[in-house]
Amino acid sequence: MSLSMGACPHAWQQHHLHHRGRMWAASPAFRRQLFLLRSLAPTCADGGRASSSSLRPHLMYAAAGPVYEADAEAVVRRITPPLDRARHKGQAGKIAIIGGCREYTGAPYFAAISALRVGADLSHVFCTKDAATVIKSYSPELIVHPILEESYSVRDDERESVSSSILAEVIKWMERFDCIVVGPGLGRDSFLMDCVGNIMRHARQANIPTVVDGDGLFLITNNIGLVEDNSLAILTPNVYEYKRLVQKVLNCEVNEENASEQLTALCQKIGGVTIMRKGKADLISDGKKVTQVSTFGSPRRCGGQGDILSGSVAVFSSWARHFLLSNEQPKETSVNPMVLGCIAGSLLLRKAAALAFEKNKRSTVTTDIIEFLGQSLEDICPAGR
Ligand SMILES: NC(=O)C1=CN([C@@H]2O[C@H](COP(=O)(O)OP(=O)(O)OC[C@H]3O[C@@H](n4cnc5c(N)ncnc54)[C@H](O)[C@@H]3O)[C@@H](O)[C@H]2O)[C@@H](O)CC1
Ligand SMILES: Nc1ncnc2c1ncn2[C@@H]1O[C@H](COP(=O)(O)OP(=O)(O)OP(=O)(O)O)[C@@H](O)[C@H]1O
Ligand SMILES: [Mg+2]
């Protein structure tokens, strides 16, 4: 795919985009996209309340490429499992966060508790020993494993054995998880990074979907092989994390004028991964198409909202995977559950942030937003349906 970033004169660019837009609208890929979004329209799940016009994809030519505004509410309704009395603990999702160190205890907590508040049954945190007691004291709901170590607590001659025992401890649990989130509050200690790299390799071998956020993105930006060609990996970079990824992988600067093309190119260059570029609108791509969620959330940019998002995306992508496995889709639609998970997580966070801001205005903090995750989901997808 050509990157052609900023190289073309303005008039040519306009013509080129218009022409390419028409070609795209007439293409089989576009028709597949329409079919896909229609096939995701709610049926019995919402009692048919959503109007058919609200389910039409809105094709836009923003950022020099076709970007679809996702019908995120329809996606949430479709993939959220009903609260079935026959289900047992664990069936609505088991999530693990790999993160939490001396400096950061909030981030892994926000991600883990958000996973529970969205509807997962069990939420684990694998963190350093220093962080564990603190995280446990925030909430008895979380299962906290104090197993990670930073360089300062490991002698050079112990490194290999400590690293193996950390991996062995995580492996005991790994197969149980529907998704892991690597990075919230992980820190950037070199020994810790090596151990977490091993955990990611194991998760990949075991086919466990992996959301990579925060310091996990720092790790993979310097070791892109950890996610290369992994279709079960979701990267959720913020503005700085995205900049570092683009510089490292595409060897150029972020170009807002070609945002969707650049995002597509980044996905393709890494191969197979889904990327959600966070910002005013969240841009989501798996290298095939670019979808956005731009529902207004809140003007408050307090730290921790990305952590809520990573925990929520972990749950929704697990639900989407399950939904697609149990409802066979026509082959041509090839819906990517990782993309659906990003769309749903983005919408839910934004709705919860809007409600929290309405109540708390300038004093809105991350815990206020977490309080509204339940209501936001309930507004879209009532528990009693
Ligand atoms: N309460 C907590 O424990 C929280 C911990 N967090 C964790 O904190 C760690 C670091 O995440 P950050 O998002 O802060 O990551 P960074 O360390 O990349 O960024 C820190 C801050 O530095 C500034 N910055 C970074 N690069 C810049 C650039 N090129 N130009 C201008 N300013 C720049 C930005 O204000 C940015 O928010 C992660 O592990 C993350 O999960 C955050 O999730 C926030 C909440
Ligand atoms: N300018 C903006 N306007 C509206 N929403 C935004 C804006 N910037 C970010 N968001 C939303 O806030 C959420 C978190 O994104 P953000 O960029 O704050 O992540 P982050 O820096 O990783 O957060 P954290 O502090 O948890 O690490 C995303 O859903 C994103 O869409
Ligand atoms: Mg972050």
From TrEMBL:
Q: Boundaries of each YjeF C-terminal domain copy?
A: 72-380
Record-stated family: Belongs to the NnrD/CARKD family.
Q: Which UniProt keywords apply?
A: ATP-binding, Lyase, NAD, NADP, Nucleotide-binding, Phosphoprotein
Query: What's the name of the protein?
Result: ATP-dependent (S)-NAD(P)H-hydrate dehydratase
Gene giving rise to this polypeptide: LOC123096159
- Spell out the HAMAP family in the cross-references: NADHX_dehydratase
Q: Any keyword Nucleotide-binding?
A: yes
Protein origin, superkingdom? Eukaryota
Segment forming the signal sequence: none
Report residues binding (6S)-NADPHX: 185, 238-244, 307
